TrEMBL record:
GO terms for molecular function: hydrolase activity. It comes from marine sediment metagenome. This is 3-keto-alpha-glucoside-1,2-lyase/3-keto-2-hydroxy-glucal hydratase domain-containing protein. Gene3D superfamilies: Exo-inulinase, domain 1. It holds the Pfam family 3keto-disac_hyd. Residues 89-279 form the 3-keto-alpha-glucoside-1,2-lyase/3-keto-2-hydroxy-glucal hydratase domain.
Length: 288
């Protein structure tokens, strides 16, 4: 199934679409008489995508045949709408159907099988309509090779979120093109301000779980259960400590903001998001 997920991530790449469709059919469909192929809940949406993009009639017939074999009750992979059980106080940021509640680059992202998807030939800055001050944000994301995006927090709708607000990197750290980045440019880092610990991303094509807590001047980022950033912004704000890029508050006035929008900051790569939920914290409240 992991192999199918990986090739499916290339179905939106026109240069690799044909080979990705052929690989998906080879993985998902029966190859021998007694072989039933893959019939899990994630297979149907991928086969439907193959049918939509392939020009090969034989591949289309095989995909359609396997699609008919998948039990009608099988549900897709996708994003659970609303908070997960056991997460009191969390509310969903994405309804799984459309861009309601979001502003900005709404054409650069789509609702796809319950997922929020940043398009390879799309992206841009997509923001929540609502502003948030102190909160716990939880979401899951799946990278494609070389993917680059960002999570904006406490950001205004105008200006570069990495400076006018804060940007937490969303990045395929393993891509060769990023080998020479500065430490504060890798996944999870508060861009230009605080570098994140590396080594906690799952392999490309697998789902990652991230939690971001913004409480006053403290920003904490957990990735797949590991704390990769735990930073107090106060020393940067007060001038007692330099930001990682040396620019300080003059370059990063967003550090002074106490509220703002949450956003995804796409840079021309497909990334899938699901289970976006948030819990607002009251002044003086601790992390739950």
């Amino acid at each position: 199934l992991e192999a199918l997920r990986l090739v499916a991530s290339y179905l939106d790449d026109r240069g690799l679409q044909a080979s990705a469709a052929a690989s998906a059919v080879r993985i998902a469909c029966p190859q021998r008489a007694r072989d039933k192929g893959l019939r899990g809940p994630e297979v149907g949406p991928i086969l439907k995508k193959v049918i939509a993009v392939t020009r090969d009639g034989n591949l289309r017939k095989k995909a359609e045949a396997q699609l008919r074999r998948i039990p009608k009750g099988a549900k897709g992979p996708q994003g659970e709408v609303g908070a997960k059980g056991g997460e009191e106080g969390f509310v969903s940021l994405f309804n799984g159907k459309d861009m309601a509640g979001w502003v900005g680059a709404v054409k650069g992202y789509v609702a796809e099988n319950g997922l929020l998807v940043c398009l390879k030939k799309g992206g841009g800055n997509l923001f929540t309509e609502k502003e948030y001050a102190d909160f716990i944000l939880r979401f899951e994301f799946k990278l494609t090779p070389g993917a680059n995006n960002g999570l904006g927090i406490r950001t205004p709708l105008r200006g570069n979120p990495a400076y006018a607000g804060m940007e937490l990197q969303i990045l395929d750290n393993t891509a060769k093109r990023y080998a020479k980045l500065r430490p504060y440019q890798f996944h999870g880092s508060i861009y230009g301000v605080v570098p994140a610990k590396r080594g906690h991303l799952k392999p490309v094509g697998e789902w990652n779980a991230q939690e971001v807590t913004a409480k006053g001047t403290r920003i904490t980022v957990k990735l797949n259960g590991a704390t990769i950033v735990d930073a107090d912004l106060a020393p940067f704000i007060n001038g007692e400590k330099k930001t990682a890029d040396g620019g300080g508050v003059k370059r990063h006035p967003g550090l002074l903001r106490k509220t703002g929008h949450i956003g995804f900051l796409g840079h021309g790569a497909r990334i899938e998001f699901r289970n976006l939920r948030i819990k607002e914290l009251q002044p003086g409240a601790g992390e739950m």
